[in-house]
Amino acid sequence: MACSTSSSLVSRMFIMSTLLVAALAGNFFQDFDITWGDGRGKILNNGQLLTLSLDKASGSGFQSKKEYLFGKIDMQLKLVPGNSAGTVTAYYLSSQGPTHDEIDFEFLGNLSGDPYILHTNVFSQGKGNREQQFYLWFDPTADFHTYSILWNPQRIIFSVDGTPIREFKNSESLGVPFPKNQPMRIYSSLWNADDWATRGGLVKTDWTHAPFTASYRNFASASKNSGWFSQQLDSTSQGRMKWVQKNYMIYNYCADSKRFPQGLPQECATTNL
Ligand SMILES: *[C@@H]1O[C@H](CO)[C@@H](O)[C@H](O)[C@H]1NC(C)=O
């Protein structure tokens, strides 16, 4: 009797701890809606995996159920493998309306063996034009890698596998608007952009390789008491970001003086480079 009671207690505790772990790990059914693509976006494995696909007729996309006003958001992505030229996988935070804020990761596909470009941008109050682009130091199609956005009132930090690649600081003191009033949703989509994505539009999508598929897992959004709300880059992280920017950055709007003949945007004065 005592024995069966304690074993049912143990199994109940086991079930509860399993539920708790599942809640912390996130579940795509619980956290996201597939919003378009007519069945090309799928949630699989009891909510642990999400896939988007693209064929000649359509791409697909999803968005978070929740809105976030600041956040530390991690997602693991495995990008379209093989010949992904012409395809773009966008993964971003955005608010709505003409003066929206937005924090973007976009992955521009390529021919087999040629490097993806990771394109980043930040919009505040409807204004973007803050592109930075990178190659990656690994093949992003061979396995899942973690892409993170830390957004607090002082800074936005883009990271890849825990290595910061870009920091956009709050430069309101210089008159530059910073996203801090408009809640954002998480969005992702896989679509055809062969008019510009690969080598500036020179390489077109090869539809004989369709459908193209990108996969997502291990979504996590940190709770507010975990320190990220006031987090900044320590000197080790700054060193790693410098390493990425020195070796893998291929475009930086803050270094493009031809594009801004009137002078570089104000916030470029505070960009760590
Ligand atoms: C694709 O590969 C070419 C050749 O290596 C490279 O110039 C280009 O930056 C790569 N990425 C994209 C998205 O075009």
TrEMBL record:
It is found in: Secreted, Cell wall; Secreted, Extracellular space, Apoplast. PROSITE patterns: GH16_1, GH16_2. Residues 22-216 form the GH16 domain. The active site is at residues 102, 106. Gene3D superfamilies: 2.60.120.200. InterPro entries: Beta-glucanase-like (IPR000757), Beta-glucanase/XTH (IPR044791), ConA-like_dom_sf (IPR013320), GH16_AS (IPR008263), XET_C (IPR010713), XTH (IPR016455). Its EC number is 2.4.1.207. GO terms for cellular component: apoplast. Contains at least one intrachain disulfide bond essential for its enzymatic activity. Residues 1-25 form the signal peptide. Catalyzes xyloglucan endohydrolysis (XEH) and/or endotransglycosylation (XET). Cleaves and religates xyloglucan polymers, an essential constituent of the primary cell wall, and thereby participates in cell wall construction of growing tissues. This is Xyloglucan endotransglucosylase/hydrolase. It comes from Coptis chinensis.
